Amino acid sequence: MTILELHRVHKKYLQTDQFAVNDVSFQVDKGEILSLVGESGSGKTTLLRLIAGLEHPDSGYISLAGQKIVEGKKSVPANKRNVGMVFQDYALFPHLTLLDNVKFGLKGKVSDPDKLAKDTLSLVGLSENFSKYPHQLSGGQQQRVALARAIAPSPSILLMDEPFSNLDTILKDQVREEIRQIIKNTGVTAIFVTHDTRDALSTSDRIAILHKGYLQQIDTPRNLYEFPVNGYVANFFGRRNELLATPTKEGFYSGFGFIPDERSRLFYSQVRLCFRPENVRVEKTDQQSMCGKLLKSTYFGDHQLLKIQDEEGKTIKVRANAHTIFERDALIFFTVKQFQVEEI
Ligand SMILES: Nc1ncnc2c1ncn2[C@@H]1O[C@H](COP(=O)(O)OP(=O)(O)OP(=O)(O)O)[C@@H](O)[C@H]1O
């Protein structure tokens, strides 16, 4: 069931000549976690603020839980939208206990704010800490308080701006999983804004990727990563190799050798083969049809990245296991397991 719909939403700020959000349409289902990603200035925060009611679009409409919250000049005010918001810096009241922080927005809205606040803090794993103050908590715990405060009034949608950016790398993996679990347990629909592709890929049901205000693609993490609709989306999730190749009846010829593949019959002129470093298998035997000369190996602990070159000087990067030692200038034999074929 659709809970949020944006239809042809445009937003241009005063004294700017480009749209911050340009003709964006998408829908979010109930209980879904959607991440908005894109480089700095792509319009993520503006989109979040439009949904929250902190900005008004120039055109288009937004509906939430079956009600148009923005259309034309009409707009439901931010405080009447039933939207929960978690800010990047958590925005907790430092002089209030955790319990009072969560109770703050509930007064006058529910019959027993105290019980609901305690239940929600317990839900986020903070039942021992009701009377503590925010400064007595870790970053991850503070974030859970902010989350409890946002979900306690049962919002139609939860908006989180860069939820993981203030956490260090070790804490991040754990917090990401905790937050996803809490959100899934409560069944709340959530939109995260993030510029971190790992955060988006690991926490979201779907990801929407923006570029210069335009929505490029909205899809599951796997589909976005494996079947990007264009080069921008592909490279946003980590660099991919692009190789010119000539189609024949049985496959494609490239500077690194021959790749057997039936799709070659669909093409009559040079194509671009696109694949990520991890879509390549480096082989021990020299019986492979593809090879290149090793220019450089970069060690990452759990794998190494080999930069290899064909006879014409074209380079690609391929991933190999960490423990094999390759000599510089050695011939590296490989097969490409999965690749996309693009017309030029
Ligand atoms: N209040 C404002 N007034 C004028 N221009 C703005 C305002 N807020 C944002 N912009 C512009 O709108 C565009 C989109 O900005 P937005 O903050 O939505 O992007 P973002 O993807 O969230 O970026 P970041 O990751 O850096 O936060 C940018 O070109 C930005 O300069």
From TrEMBL:
A GO MF term: ATP binding
Species name: Lunatimonas lonarensis
Gene Ontology process terms (BP): quaternary ammonium group transport
The keyword Cell membrane is annotated on this UniProt entry: yes
Gene3D superfamilies, sorted: P-loop containing nucleotide triphosphate hydrolases (3.40.50.300)
Keywords linked to the UniProt accession: ATP-binding, Cell membrane, Ion transport, Iron, Iron transport, Membrane, Nucleotide-binding, Transport
Cross-referenced PROSITE patterns: ABC_TRANSPORTER_1, ABC_TRANSPORTER_2
Domain named ABC transporter: residues: 4-237
InterPro entries: AAA+_ATPase, ABC_SmlMolc_Importer, ABC_transporter-like_ATP-bd, ABC_transporter-like_CS, ABC_transpr_FbpC, Mo/tungstate-bd_C_term_dom, P-loop_NTPase, Transp-assoc_OB_typ2
Protein name from the UniProt record: Putative ABC transporter ATP-binding protein
Domain of life: Bacteria
Gene Ontology cellular-component annotations: ATP-binding cassette (ABC) transporter complex
Pfam family, one: ABC_tran
